Amino acid sequence: MTNEEKKTSSEDILNKKWDLCLSNLLVKSGIGLSVGIVASALIFKKKSWPIAMSTGFGIGVAYADCQRTFNPTAIPGVKIIKPPPS
Amino acid sequence: MLGAIRQAARVRTANLFSPNVTRQQIFLQTRKRIYSTETTSKSTSDISKAATNGATPFKGATPTETVKEELAANNAVKEELAKKKGFGFGKFILGITIFGGIAYGGAVYYSLEHEDFRDAFVEHVYGAEKSVEYVEDLQRQGTFERIGKDVKQFNNKAFDKGKDVFNRVNQIFKQPDTVKVPIEKIVKERKIELPEDPILLKLTYTLNELIDILDNYDVKDKDDLIKRAKEELRELGTHIDLLRIEDQARIQAHITEQNEKYNQLYVSKENELKRQLEDEKKRIYEQHYEQFNSELARESARHNEELKNELFRQSVEIQRRWIRDVKFMVEKERGGRLARLDNINHHLKILERISVDNAEHLDDSLKTHRLWCALRALQNAIEQPDRIPFANQIAAMRHLSSTDEIVTTVLSTIDDNVANNGVDSISDLSARFATVRDEVRRASLVPENGGVFAHLLSIMLSKVLFHKHGLVEGSDVESILARVQYHLNENDLDTATRELNQLKGWPKKLAEDWIKAARNHLEIKQAIEVIETQATLSSLSVV
Asked: Which sequence ranges are marked TM in the entry (chain A) (predicted)?
């Protein structure tokens, strides 16, 4: 058991990010799907739209997380203005 | 009624053409019209005619005729007025122009002399500057002087011509004078010849006059008297001549006497001066001779003194030298034996120093050899395909080169981490570059603040890009990668690293680790090179 993990070499940064993204996508959409199925079964009288909507929510959350990992400065509602070159 | 209307119309047109028709005329015309309309409203054209006839008090003619007359009169008036106006206006304009011209010319002329007036004139009057400048130019060119000279010349010529004419006229009138002269000459010959003396001349003139008078009267013995007068006058003349000659002779004698006297005086004076000069010469000569003798004696005495001094000095010098030589020879003899002992001592010292140096050299060379070995070990470690830590080797080298400043400095620059972890070899780095290149290609199209989809697009579209090879120019990602590959193929890690450092943004971030590793390798290699050179130099015992 090493104290610190092996450091990621710089060329693998993006790969790691993609890994995170994809795993996030799968997990969250899976959760969304299951929640949708449950909700549709219990509350919404076996309609199909809650499933789709819930899955969509899951995908959306995954997308937002992905966006944050790839570009942490793109906070909604905030624009970064670069100072003019002097 | 029609006729009245026509008349009225005609009157109106007449009014238009003659604006200077008087009010009274207009009034009359209107009254006429009124009358005419009154009558014609009741009657036929005949009655209207009669009425109009009656309504024209000043001319008993038909309306057309009256109108015509009126027009004619108006025209006449107009012409008169026009003439008056034209004539008066023209005269006025002419007068104004002439006056203006004179004033302008006068102003220009005045401004030539006075500066203040010139400034004011030029400032306020339009076109004044040009004319003043023109006139000044003319003045400078001297046209005025020329014109003045011409005029004067012409005047002179005219005056001369006038004088000529006058002279010629005078001459014509003076002709009769020439006739008189020869007559006088003839008359004089009969009388007495003119002597040169002025007093006698006067006398002859009076006698001539008397002869003239006598000629007029018939006196007896006239000719005898005249002849006697002539004779006596001639005698007088000769007497005067004789007196003159006597006088001259006397004067001449006096002059020669004076001349002789003065000549004698002069000669005596000359002799005296000559004697004086001789005396002076003799005296000066004797003086100089004495002076010269005394000088000569003095000079010879001094010279003798000098020679004696010189002789004395030289004798002293020779003696001293002789003594020195003797001393030197004695010393030489004495020093011979001592010098030999000194020599031996000196040699011994040299030998000591040589042995010590030798020992030092051996130590140094041993150290250098050891350093070389350590260096070789380090190089070996670096060129291994895996990372091998070389901290031991560096420690050993540090120990070995404690005296060398450069080596210690270089060794101190090597990072401990690097020493502990080892460095990648060039082959390692080349292999790693392949992966780095693929990653960089995938991220090459990402914009600055791209999100997920930007990265996704970049990945997809970069698969469509063409790959470049070889040494291509350009600063885009593909060219840089091609160049780096080319340099790596030539084993030129330094240039490859520099090229890769030119990436920007995400590609740079991905390539950072590779660049760091390459840098480490390059640093270690540089350190090794420096130590190598140092070791070479010390092994050549230059350092």
From this structure: 25-44
